[in-house]
Design brief:
The complex is a heterodimer of chains A (479) and B (444). Chain A is of the alpha+beta class and 479 residues long. Chain A is 22% helix and 39% strand. Chain B folds into two domains: 202 residues, PmbA/TldD superfamily (PmbA/TldD fold, 2-Layer Sandwich); 235 residues, no CATH class. Chain B has ten helices and 19 strands. Classes of the chains: A alpha+beta (479), B alpha+beta (444). At the A-B interface, β1, β2, β3, α2 and α3 of A face β1, β2, β3, α2 and α4 of B.
Chain lengths: 479, 444
């Protein structure tokens, strides 16, 4: 789409003296319905469409974008990028370059089984509106005081052309649902759960989630935490971390610190640096044999799905940590050139107005061989943290905290009373060195990962199995 | 550009009326923006954007649809409207529908600094001033950005509003590294002031090297001085959760409070001030065409105002505060009035505590209860008997907003205009002295 103006941008940029020109037509369109407490707030229709141009000129890397999809419009964008590059001289110490790659000439799309528009909006709304009256039926004492829902269907279409031969056309439909749930009980206060679902595909993906059943089960499970949750013990105990929390942990403490641009320092003033230094790659260990973390853009149906990245490089799985070794960082062509290596197709741009950055796609801890019962059967005293609300990690991706929401004591090998707000606070090394057993079931969870300036949010999955850790001290969130 | 944008907005309203919509708001926005990004003391990328987009609100029989789309010319208007006709019929009636208010907005003038526009595509040179200042102050490496922008917006509504406003903005921040420490500072304004940019560099470097004596601090409760960067990050969150929509959606600690409740120290006020022209959130009209006004969210410790548009105001049976967002009311500029401390006096006041230069990644366990944690970044300095005695590696503040607000013991006289990656609302804020705040760190 708009291939003529994309090739015009390439030719024009080269004619002006650029060493590299990349032009990406990028359209994100979608619609959204917002529901509050069983009533419609409103609907939204969003479209972002334009061309992003990136050049390397006189050793400087510059990006410009425009919504003006004419020859004149993209010419102006190229001129602006070159103008910015020219004036960058006072801040250039070495010349920027991109790694040489076998870039793709390809066209692909995620096949939809059930078109969004074939399902009446009224039917979609009916499911969400009905939850407000249905969900309280499973509650014993607490009240459902707030249920905020948003449903989004979207299609991302791109045509990427580069001066070194890439030509990649893609179309990825996605679907997303989120709910904010607040339960209240007069003596115990409130409990909040925020939950998201996302994937690539058509409406069939939404059907597969069975959100009515999932939210009903969610509410049934968290009510006892509000009503009867106890503080965790103060002494060190065995900890079993649920796959939802494991997925977040590997996203934060494996995926992010292994973004090569961050290792170099490109995000130092924003999302931060990394505990990983270039000399540690392929040499130092961060965990034990159980610590294998993979990022794979091509997981079918995933929220982070793609087959070619936004620099035209074909996607493949990246073994970020391999059996405890700090193994393979995520690269785009810029970071690959800086590190003297090849890109592994991690370049992603949120929209036409965004430069391609090193990003995760679908990150997960490799599963093991245990059932859940086998993970906990010999724990005398422990805790199982199944889900979370609060989390954060420092800017070198070392010290991190996850506060449990649905959590239980483990007593004599069985789940026991609920626990209120247990806080796990550990370092990256202590987590990956403490994994003593892994469940065999791999589950994925949905997120929107933020990075860059201006901040770019890109769809990702993160996941893993349930994991048992060796004994550690568990804190508690202040109330 | 003014005539072009206004014409598109008015045409959209006119055509919408012709198609039988009950309410129409058309906001046409043109943004020209250039950003220079620096890391390891050198330019990593220079970026620029030129965007013209239409934000359109349509209501028909109490059904609401919002549209956001790029727009080039008049032809696009008909295209957008023709695509939405059937869609809106399938949307259910909105529980929050309220008729559009009569326009009362008064566009602000003098929001443009010509230097911003003139320098836009030479911004690397201005960024170099900021970087050089940090290195002159002793920084060994730096990272940050300088963003220059001009935004022009035209608003037309079916209730009769026809407003236009344009303003420039400058956002600058720098992180300076010295040995294993770092400092950070930021600046947000409508005015390009090279001295202010140099000051960003100098302060970032100053905070990177206040002490090189690394000390260990056990987790626990401490008195602390929070820099304007930290205060800005945390109070942005408080201001955002004062949006009445956040209350309606279950994302606000103000769900538990009513007007007049004591929610903070009486020394503390939090004001939304859209009329402070130097701060880049300033505007004379909101997205419904209502005049904006200055109002306290918290005044001398007491909860005073949620932020409303006409829809949330109708649900809560009150009046708009001129903070539309069509669906979500939003704060424009955050101002926290200063107190009577100098920054040195704040540190002298602390027997056993910490100076927190910067933070990020604030997340909540429960918005209603205000249970949160946030991670310190850059240097945290140990204060003992009124003196800085060492630097502490990364700690985490883990507490509740009600506790934090009530434990505010003092505010600095000097205020700072701040905006950066973790302070998104333009803010004018002091240092804050807070007592007995909970700090944690990894247990393993």
């Amino acid at each position: 789409m708009y291939e003529d103006i994309l090739y015009y941008a390439i030719d024009y940029g080269l004619s002006q003296g650029a060493a590299y020109v990349e032009a990406r037509y990028h359209k994100n369109r979608g619609s959204e319905v917002v529901i509050r407490n069983g009533a419609v707030v409103g609907a939204g229709v969003m479209s972002k469409e334009g061309v992003g141009v990136r050049v390397i000129y006189d050793g400087a890397l510059a990006f410009s974008s425009t919504t003006d999809l004419t020859r004149e419009g993209v010419r102006r964008a190229v001129d602006k990028a070159i103008s910015l590059a020219r004036s960058s001289k006072p801040l250039i110490k070495w010349e920027h370059a991109l790694s040489e790659e076998r870039v793709g000439k390809a066209k692909y799309e995620v096949v939809i089984k059930e078109n969004f528009e074939d399902v009446p909006l009224e039917d979609k709304i009916k499911i969400m509106v009905g939850l407000w009256s249905e969900l309280p039926k499973v509650l014993k004492e607490a009240k459902l005081v707030s249920l905020f829902e948003a449903y989004i269907e979207s299609i991302e279409e791109k045509t990427l052309v580069t001066s070194d031969g890439a030509h990649v056309v893609s179309r990825i439909p996605r679907i997303f649902y989120e709910a904010n749930i607040v339960l209240s009980q007069s003596q115990r206060g409130t409990l909040q759960r925020f939950i998201e679902f996302g994937g690539s595909g058509g409406y069939e993906v939404f059907r597969s989630w069975r959100i009515e059943d999932q939210l009903r089960e969610e509410i049934r499970s968290i009510e006892p935490v509000l009503l009867k949750g106890v503080e965790p013990p103060k002494e060190p105990i065995d900890v079993v971390v649920g796959s939802e929390v494991v997925g977040l942990i590997v996203h934060e403490s494996a995926g992010h610190p292994m973004e090569a641009d961050r290792i170099w320092g490109r995000e130092a003033a924003q999302a931060g640096e990394s505990y990983v230094k270039p000399e540690m790659l392929g040499r130092e260990r961060i965990g034990n044999e159980n610590a294998t973390v993979i990022d794979d853009p091509a997981v079918p149906g995933s929220y982070g799905f793609y087959l070619y990245d936004d620099e035209g490089v074909p996607a493949r799985p990246r073994y970020i940590y391999y059996k405890g070794l700090i193994n393979e960082p995520l690269h785009n062509r810029w970071s690959a050139a800086v590190f003297g290596t090849k890109s592994n197709a991690a370049a992603r741009a949120m929209d036409f107005a965004s430069e391609p950055l090193v990003r995760m796609a679908n990150t997960y801890l490799e599963p093991g061989d245990r059932t859940f019962e086998e993970l906990i059967e010999d724990i005398e005293l422990g805790i199982y943290v199944k889900s979370y609300m609060e989390w954060n990690i420092d800017d070198i991706r070392w010290g991190q905290r996850y506060v449990g929401l649905e959590s239980y004591m483990i007593r004599k090998g069985e789940l026991a009373e609920p626990v209120l707000y247990p806080a796990l606070e550990f370092t990256t090394k202590s987590f990956y060195s403490s994994i003593v057993a892994k469940g065999k079931e791999l589950r994925f969870y949905t997120g929107t990962c933020g990075k860059g300036e201006p901040a770019q949010g890109v769809p990702v999955w993160f996941g893993g199995p349930d994991v048992r850790l060796s004994k550690m001290r568990v804190g508690v969130a202040p109330r | 550009m003014k005539e072009f944008l206004l014409e598109l907005a008015k045409l959209t309203v006119e055509k919408g009326k012709g198609l039988g919509y009950d309410d129409i708001v058309a906001k046409v926005v043109n943004t020209d923006e250039a950003m220079v990004k620096v890391a390891n003391s050198q330019l990593t990328v220079a970026q620029s954007w030129r965007i013209i987009k239409l934000e359109l609100y349509l209501a028909k029989d109490r059904r609401i649809v919002l549209i956001e789309t790029p727009i080039k010319d008049k032809k696009d208007v008909s295209q957008v409207l023709s695509n939405i006709g059937n869609y809106i019929k399938s949307v259910k009636e909105s529980e929050m529908y309220a008729p559009l208010p009569e326009p009362s907005g008064k566009p602000l003038d003098e929001l443009i600094d010509p230097k911003v526009i003139d320098s836009m595509y030479q911004s690397p040179e201005a960024a170099a001033e900021m970087v050089s200042a940090a290195h002159s102050e002793g920084a060994e490496k730096t990272a940050g950005t300088l963003t220059l922008a001009v935004e022009r917006k035209a608003l037309a509504t079916s209730a009769g509003a026809e407003f236009y406003e344009e303003g420039t903005s400058v956002e600058a921040y720098l992180r300076a590294f010295h040995r294993d420490n770092s400092g950070h500072w930021a600046y947000g304004s409508r005015v390009l002031d090279l001295n202010a940019l140099r000051e960003v560099g100098r302060k970032a470097a100053y905070y990177a090297k206040l002490s090189t004596n690394v000390v260990d601090v056990p987790p626990g409760r401490y008195d602390a001085v929070l820099s304007p960067l930290v205060v800005g990050n945390l109070m942005d969150l408080v201001a955002n959760t004062a949006s009445a929509f956040a209350v309606l959606a279950g994302f606000s600690m103000f769900m538990k409070f009513k007007r007049g409740d004591l929610v903070a120290s009486e020394k503390f006020s939090l004001i939304d001030d859209p009329l402070e022209k130097v701060l880049p959130g300033s505007t004379g009209f909101d997205d419904e065409g209502i005049a904006t006004k200055t109002k306290p969210i918290i005044k001398e410790g007491r909860f005073e105002n949620l932020l409303h548009n006409s829809k949330t105001a109708a649900v809560m049976k009150t009046e708009s505060t001129g903070n539309a967002g069509i669906i979500m009311p939003q704060p424009w500029n955050v101002i926290i009035p200063g107190g009577d401390y100098s920054e040195e006096e704040m540190i002298k006041e602390i027997k056993n505590g910490l100076l927190v230069v910067n933070n990020w990644y604030t997340r909540l366990q429960n918005y209603v209860e205000g249970i949160f944690s946030t991670v310190t970044r850059d240097a945290v300095y140990r204060i003992s008997n009124g003196e800085i005695v060492g630097v502490v590696r990364r700690l985490r503040i883990a507490d509740t907003f009600p506790n934090l607000l009530k434990n505010i013991a003092g505010l600095s006289k000097n205020l700072y205009d701040v905006k950066w990656w973790e302070v998104r609302i333009p803010s004018r804020i002091p240092y804050i002295l807070v007592k007995n705040i909970n700090f944690t760190k990894p247990t393993v």
